[in-house]
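fyi for ur records
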Amino acid sequence: MNKNDYIEFIEKHLDKYLEVKYPEKIYKSMRYSVLASGKRLRPVMCLEACRIFGGKVEDAIKCACAIEMLHVQSLIHDDLPCMDNDDYRRGKLTNHKAFDEATAVLAGDALLSFAPQMIIRDDKLSDEVKLKVLNEFFTAAGVDGIISGQIVDLESEGKSINEETLEYLQTYKTSALFKFALKAGAIIAGANDIQIADMEKLGQKFGLAFQICDDILDETSTFEELGKTVGKDKNAHKQTYTAIHGLEKSKKDVICLLDECCDIIEQYQSSVILKQIIDEVREKVR
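which gave:
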C-alpha cells in the first residue's frame, strides 16, 4: 500500500464503523467531523509502524481508526467557544457551528468512549495486546496527554512562557497522539521494547516538528490553504514557537527535528511512507 491507499483504507473503515443509528443527530455529528477531509497522519503512521515490524495492517485498522476518532474528538472540543472558539476546521464549519454547542460536546464525548470500545472488541488482537494498546490510548487521551497540553495552552493566552513550558505544551498537546499511533502499531506487530521506545522517540520529535510547522503556517498561510482561521494564536497573544524564536529559527529547528526523525527510521526497514510524511512537512517550511 502507498499513502493514498492507506488513507482510502482508513476512510472506508471510518465510514463503516460510524454507521448512522438512533438517535441520528449524534451519529451525524460524529460523522460530520470524523469524515471531513483530513490528512489522516496518525492512523497512517499506526498502520505503517505495524507493517514495518512485520504485522498485518488489517490487524491494526480498528486501532488506527480509534486514534483518528480520538484526534477528531480533541479537535471538536478544542474548537468550542469555551476553548479556542474557532468557526472553521478542515475547510468546513466547526461541529458546534454546523450543529450546536451541546451536540458538539456530546459528539466529542461519544467519540472518546466509542474509540476504545473498538479496540476492546477487536477479535484480531490478544487480550495482552489490547491491554497494552488501551494503556497507551488512555495515557494519550487523559491528564498525562492531550488534556494537560490543552490546559497549559489555555493558561498561556496573554502570558509569557519559557521554552520548557512551551515544549511541555507541544509534547502533550501534539506529540502525544503521534507517539500513541506509532507505539500502538508497533505493539500490535509484536515489536520489542527497544523498537517501541524508538517509535516513541519518533513520535515525540515528529510531533514537535509538526507543531512548530503549524505555528509557522498560522503566520504565513491563508484560510484557503489551511481550511481554518489563521492568525488566531497571534491575536490571542499566545507564546508560540515562532513568537519566541522567530520564523527563520523556527524553520531551521523543524528541519533539524525532521532529520532526527529520518535517523530513527533508517535503523529499521526503510519506510517510504514515513519518509514521505516527513518530507511533506519539510516542504511546508521551505
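The two ends are 28 Å apart (CA to CA). thats all i got for now
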